[in-house]
Amino acid sequence: MEKNKNHYAIIMAGGVGTRFWPSSRSSYPKQFLDILGTGSSLLQLTYKRFLKHFLPENIYIVTNVAYMDLVKTQIPDINMNQVLGEPTAKNTAACIAFASSKIHHINTHAISVVAPSDHLILDEDTFMDHIEMAMNYARKNESLITLGIRPNRPDTGYGYIQYIDEGQENNIFKVKTFTEKPTLEIAQTFMESGDFLWNAGIFVWSGKSIRNAFKEHLHEQYALFHEASKYYGASDEAIQVQKLYEQCRSISIDYGIMEKASNVYVIPSDFGWSDLGTWTSLYEISDKDAHGNVVKGKNIFAYDTKDCMISANGQNGRLVVVKSTENLIIVDTPDVLMICDKNHEQEIKQIVTDIKLKFDEKYI
Amino acid sequence: MEKNKNHYAIIMAGGVGTRFWPSSRSSYPKQFLDILGTGSSLLQLTYKRFLKHFLPENIYIVTNVAYMDLVKTQIPDINMNQVLGEPTAKNTAACIAFASSKIHHINTHAISVVAPSDHLILDEDTFMDHIEMAMNYARKNESLITLGIRPNRPDTGYGYIQYIDEGQENNIFKVKTFTEKPTLEIAQTFMESGDFLWNAGIFVWSGKSIRNAFKEHLHEQYALFHEASKYYGASDEAIQVQKLYEQCRSISIDYGIMEKASNVYVIPSDFGWSDLGTWTSLYEISDKDAHGNVVKGKNIFAYDTKDCMISANGQNGRLVVVKSTENLIIVDTPDVLMICDKNHEQEIKQIVTDIKLKFDEKYI
Fold it and tell me: Which of B47, B106, B54, B114 is nearest to B78 (CA)?
């Protein structure tokens, strides 16, 4: 894909999730962590991925104002005009409306890809081929395009997109429905039907298409950002944006627009994707030793141990010794040690809630 | 038991074991740790136990010179003349010969109890009753008396003492044999026979009896300490003791004397004893929560977890969260975390050896 002055990338980096707790904290969420042990955070990997195919001045990062410094530290080359700080988290619709109105303010011919900052994409070439395909389609058609992942298991942790397998142009299908996270039985039927894809939260559209979609389906947000855009570049921009966010309701782009719009399309994709939503998802996609262990970090010694996910940073020469255990998630951080059976990691969420009740924000 | 000016207690505190690794280290062995979570180290508990029934000036602690400061810190009231520093560890025979010759130098009518510094004794009254019984016997008879523990399981980790169940005076029996650690089958037959006791390494004798025993069975050590005692109190005492230890062979009192002497007696005892030899032995004797967990330390939260032994000191507010695990030993120290299945703790020893190979003394 050639770099095009009308092509923009919007990286959503406002997540505050504690799904990789205790490695992730509300002050240092997952997108800023080198969760894969590559030497780069997920945000840095996402940024580099787009930098190969987008002009540097056309890559925007939307994050919470609290993380602006973290973004600046991790992406020192970015112009801070392209780092958009949200005063409060108001879900993906506000994030996208904000970035889209910013870009529209500069370039009314923009075609944008919107992508989360904290997902794994192994096959970047296929990913970019599909983005290019979507951008070409978006230039010619007033449409909202999403990349859907072909499911390889009946995962109950994702939303699904059903497409209509007829009358498609190339590999771009009309979407029939968006569905919430299903039960296992329903996920199984989705898998078998062959026309359901995982919703990866990756979107492509023209500035005009997304503006029209907001105008029609989330008119209030459209009006708010339309009003605010008068102040872009002005000295009181941050104050105006803050006012706007106070009035803005919190709604996802899926629920607010994608489920309602009639011009939604999907490209079935398979590019080694994971939302890296849990320790187990990291375990699944990581290289394992001969005994099925994933060991991320330094000074970790596992004896007679299998199928464990061990993460420890070896800070200050700290040593982790594991002996004759199985199927555990072990996460050692400077102030929290967590040991959890892999089959019970969904319950880490409740633990985080409980620890928050006990200690307030201290360990969160 | 009334305090008697001829009654002495010798506490052996020279152990360098790493059995409670990573809590115990060669620079801070088990006897100096508050392994029971009572606020006192095992050495402090042992010292206090004797202080109730012995004159303070009659309690001696034998330790490695490297631990003299630790002893002084933990037992600040003790006169340092009563803390005997061994230049090198030469097993229990040298330790006992040293302390005995020191005490003989001061009081030729001494009756001494010798006891390890790092064992658990729950029923101190019964323990002291048996010590008193042994001391009374030792005063009247040239004998070497040991307290043997009635076994409640066929433990293969202890040496056993077989006694002759006839012609005894009160509860003091003549010893037939000392045996090394048995196999499980043999331990089973020992249990069933009823005349085998665990060797707890607790001895009582008069100064005269133990001197004669050394003279007869370990004459070389007798001669060395006899020679050295000329220098006790002199300015070059430490140098003379060092010379002596260089020449002294390393042998246990059991192997060097008890197994050979003919005047050895045993008092079958039951006073809630454990040698606290392993994490599991600590687990066994500790109070458990409703799910069979033993939790020692601060800021430890176990959810849906059972039969685990968790030790963490909560230093610097460190948090330990354990979820849905079973039968684990979890030990969190500032520089080492160890997680080990309880059924495999015997292998911790090899791990310590391996870590030593990799890092030398750093974590040992």
Answer: B47
CB nearest A335 (choices: B317, B323, B359): B317
Is residue B163 within a helix (H) or strand (E), and if so which, with residue range? Answer: strand B160-169
DSSP result, A3-16 = --TTEEEEEE----
Q: Which residues of A touch B324 (CB under 8 A)?
A: 340-341, 343-344, 347
The pLDDT assigned to A336 comes to 95
pLDDT in tens, B61-89: 999 999 999 999 999 999 999 999 999 99
CA B299 from chain centre, in angstroms, equals 31
For chain A, say whether B339 makes contact (Cβ under 8 Å).
yes
CA distances, A329 to each of A134, A292, A349, B301, B325 (Å): 39, 12, 14, 16, 10
Question: With contact defined as beta carbons under 8 Å apart, do B29 and B74 qualify?
Answer: no
Q: What is the enclosing helix (H) or strand (E) of A269?
A: strand A264-269
A277: helix, coil or strand? coil
Q: Which residues, 6+ apart, have CB-to-CB distance to B2 below 8 Å? A: B53
How high is the pLDDT of residue B1?
Answer: 74
Contact B347 A338 (CB under 8 A): no
What does the DSSP 8-state code read for residue A291?
A: T
Question: Tokens 């061994």 appear where?
Answer: B86
Helix B219-228 × helix B237-247 angle, to 10°: 170
Other beta carbons within 10 Å of B192? 9
Secondary structure class of A352 (helix, strand, coil)? helix
Q: How far is B28 from chain A (nearest CA, A)?
A: 18
C-alpha B49/C-alpha B66 separation (Å) is: 24
What is the DSSP annotation of A48-64? Answer: HHHHTTS-GGGEEEEEE
Is B312 in Cβ contact with A318 (below 8 Å)? no
Write the pLDDT tens digit of every residue in A204-249: 999 999 999 999 999 999 999 999 889 998 899 999 999 999 999 9
Whether B347 and A317 lie within 8 Å, measured CB to CB? no
Q: What is the CA radius of gyration of chain A?
A: 21
Indicate whether A306 pLDDT > 90.
yes
DSSP bridge partners of A264: A144
Dihedral angle at the C-alpha atoms of B316, B39, B61, B26, nearest 10 degrees?
-30
For residues B29, B34, B35 and B39, what is the CA-based torsion angle, rounded to 10 degrees? 180
- As a 3-state breakdown, chain A gives helix, strand, coil percent values, each rounded to 5, of 40, 25, 35
Confirm or reject contact between A123 and chain B (CB < 8 A): no
What is the phi/psi pair of residue B340, to 5°? -145, 135
Query: What does pTM read for this prediction?
Result: 0.86
Which tens digit of pLDDT belongs to each residue from B148-196?
A: 999 989 988 899 999 998 877 689 999 999 998 999 999 999 999 999 9
Which tokens in the block code for residue A350? 């409740």
Q: Is A206 helix (H, G, I), strand (E, B) or coil?
A: strand
Does A321 contact B at CB distance below 8 Å?
yes
> Which pLDDT band holds residue A13 (cuts at 50, 70, 90)?
very high
For residue A184, the SS3 value is: helix
